[in-house]
Amino acid sequence: MVTWKLASEDDVERAEHAAEVARRLNALDGVVPQLRSISAGANSVYPDANWDVTLISDFDSVEALEQYQVHPAHEEVAVFIRSVVASRVAVDFEV
């Protein structure tokens, strides 16, 4: 799970960026073979208190996660995300 706080101070722009981050991440479904599942979404309530975008993704192994991280399609999305993000937090756990 990864969650981002976006950099824009403008509410409209921040919402647009959040929607675009989620759209680009969700578009990786079926493109990156290591992804078992992916779900990204923009925050829809309490924008002053909550973070802006969250990603939940599942992999069969740590190795699959590491392959996803360097996949060209993921790296392209990551470039955009880094351009609009102020902060990032992540938790990796096994089920």
Structure description:
The chain is α+β, with helices and mostly antiparallel strands. It contains 3 helices and 4 strands, in the order E-H-E-E-H-H-E. It has helices spanning 11-26, 62-70, 72-84, and strands at residues 2-6, 37-42, 53-58, 85-90. A 4-stranded antiparallel sheet has the order 2-3-1-4. Helix 1 (11-26) packs antiparallel against helix 3. The longest helix has 16 residues, at 11-26. The relative contact order is 0.26. The model has no long low-confidence stretch (mean pLDDT 96).
Q: What is the strand and helix layout of this fold?
A:
Layout: E1 2-6, H1 11-26, E2 37-42, E3 53-58, H2 62-70, H3 72-84, E4 85-90
Antiparallel strand pairs: 1-3, 1-4, 2-3
Features:
alpha+beta, four-stranded antiparallel sheet, globular, 95 residues
Briefly summarize what is shown.
This protein has helices at residues 11-26, 62-70, 72-84, and strands at residues 2-6, 37-42, 53-58, 85-90. It has 95 residues and is α+β, with helices and mostly antiparallel strands.
Strand-residue fraction?
15-25%
Number of strands: 4
Rounded to the nearest angstrom, the radius of gyration is 13 Å
The residue fraction in helices comes out at: 40-55%
Mean pLDDT: 96
In DSSP terms, counting alpha (H) and pi (I) runs of 4 or more, how many helices?
Answer: 3
The first-to-last residue Cα distance is 13 Å
Secondary-structure-derived class: alpha+beta
Largest sheet properties: 4 strands, antiparallel
What global shape is seen? globular
SSE string, helix = H, strand = E? EHEEHHE
Q: Order of strands side by side in the largest beta sheet?
A: 2-3-1-4
Question: Segments where pLDDT lies below 50 for 5+ residues?
Answer: none
